[in-house]
Amino acid sequence: MKKAPIKNVTKTLVKKVPAEAQPNPDLVIINQDLPVLIPKKENGKFGYVNQKGKFIIKPEYHIAVFFYEDCNLLNSPNEKVRKFGTKEYATVEKDMISYRVNRTGKRVYQFKDSDLGKCKFEEYKQQLYQAYVLNGFYGVIEKAKFVNAADYRDYQIYPQYQYLYIMEGDNTADPMIVVSHNDRFGVIDVNNKVIIPFEYSNIKRNFSWKLGKMFEVTKDGQNYYYIDVRNKTY
């Protein structure tokens, strides 16, 4: 039997379309006001947990800050590294070396002095309120309205606390205020409403509220951790 001749068939090449990157199911969002990843210390090292408290980036760093913009990198003379200055990355430090990591924990950039540019600072937001000390106690005044220190009605919060510090934040009309009462720290608002109960030996006066809407607290004076405005621990 004769074999049928083989016909030349033109093959059509099908290009493989890369699958879209699937969202990481571990990066859950329970509270829209909080960061997706939160720095947490365990056994003396920092890593990052999600909003459920699960470690997503293992604790191995001496320093770990919130995922936030780094203005020195955003304005770097090296255009290739500017992307690492966005809020999609966080700064960590290990063995005296600083890195930027992504949300999976991968070190994507190691800091170099030659890459650092000059920050372009935003216009300063004038604070409406300030601390006021009377007879050794702290209160709060609204600077534009305060006239007479002898008139209790001129005070936003009449001086009654051992210590008071107005946290820096974007909402100058309703700032969070760290105060001390009976040797314990808590947080109040400008109406003297207790936001965080007086149960901590210290609350750090840093950028945790501005950057992450969280407070860095301790009950024993040594072990610090983050809580949200509902006093939930992470």
Structure in words:
The longest helix is centred in the last third of the chain and has 5 residues, at 208-212. The protein is globular, with a radius of gyration of 26 Å. Helices cover 4% and strands 35% of the residues. Strands 4-5-6-7 form a 4-stranded antiparallel β-sheet, with no helix packed on it. It has a 4-stranded antiparallel β-sheet with strand order 11-12-13-14, with no helix packed on it. It is mainly beta and 234 residues long. Strand 1 (38-42) and strand 2 form a beta hairpin.
Helix content: under 10%
Mean pLDDT across every amino acid position: 92
Low-confidence stretches: none
N to C succession of SSEs? EEEEHEEEEEEEEEEEHEE
* Strand numbers in spatial order across the main sheet: 4-5-6-7
What's the gyration radius in Å? 26 Å
* CA-based shape: globular
Strand content: 25-35%
Q: What's the helix count?
A: 2
Structural class: mainly beta
Query: What distance separates the N and C termini?
Result: 80 Å
The total strand number stands at 17
Main sheet makeup: 4 strands, antiparallel
Furnish the topology, listing elements before pairings:
Layout (H helix, E strand, L loop, with lengths): L37 E5 L2 E5 L5 E7 L1 E2 L6 H4 L15 E5 L2 E5 L5 E4 L18 E6 L2 E6 L14 E5 L1 E4 L10 E5 L2 E5 L5 E7 L1 E2 L4 H5 L2 E4 L5 E4 L7
